[in-house]
Amino acid sequence: MEQIRHNVPSGSPFEAAIGFSRAVRKGSHVVVAGTAPIGEDGTTVAPGDVYAQTVRCLDIAEAALEAAGSSAADVVRTRIMLTDITAWRDAARAHGERFGEIRPACTFVEVSRFIEPEWLVEIEVDAVLDA
Predict the structure, then answer these.
(1) Beta carbons within 8 Å of 44's beta carbon, 6+ residues apart
(2) What is the pTM (predicted TM-score) of this model?
(3) Which residues on adjacent β-strands are paired with residue 82?
(4) Is the pLDDT of residue 11 over 80?
(5) Interior/surface letters 81-90, b for 16+ CB within 10 angstroms, e for the rest
């Protein structure tokens, strides 16, 4: 049986040039790409505030999940990338508020930087829907 692929656009002007989607669903799997703290107006949300940026990333990721026919309840793994790992507790607080009952596998890593210097966090999310 062939599985249908559903791409969820990000709205980024770079999507076609880079060749990416905000999320992709294939069968019961949904994968949300690295999600940065970008506001509706295209600017960075809450410069300097890891907690608020994490909330924004999670909001964007959750919207992508929903667009793919999934939800936060289906999340099995998250990856939180920070430019300063010592701020992990701020990101963890936002993550715990969203996933405290769901408790997906979660990894925190430090990265040297992101595309935009004001981004302090970026998040990836994987979900699996029940058959």
Answers:
(1) 36, 37, 38, 53, 116, 118, 119
(2) 0.92
(3) 110, 121
(4) no
(5) bbbeeebbeb
Residue 17 in tokens: 């040039």
First and final CA of the chain: distance in angstroms?
14
| Beta bridge mates, 8 | 23
pLDDT, one tens digit per residue, over 34-93 is 999 999 998 999 999 999 999 999 999 999 999 999 999 999 999 999 999 999 999 999
Amino acid at residue number 98: R
Q: Which token pair is 1?
A: 């049986």
The span from the CA of 93 to the CA of 55, in Å, is 9
Query: Could you tell me the two tokens for 58?
Result: 């999670």
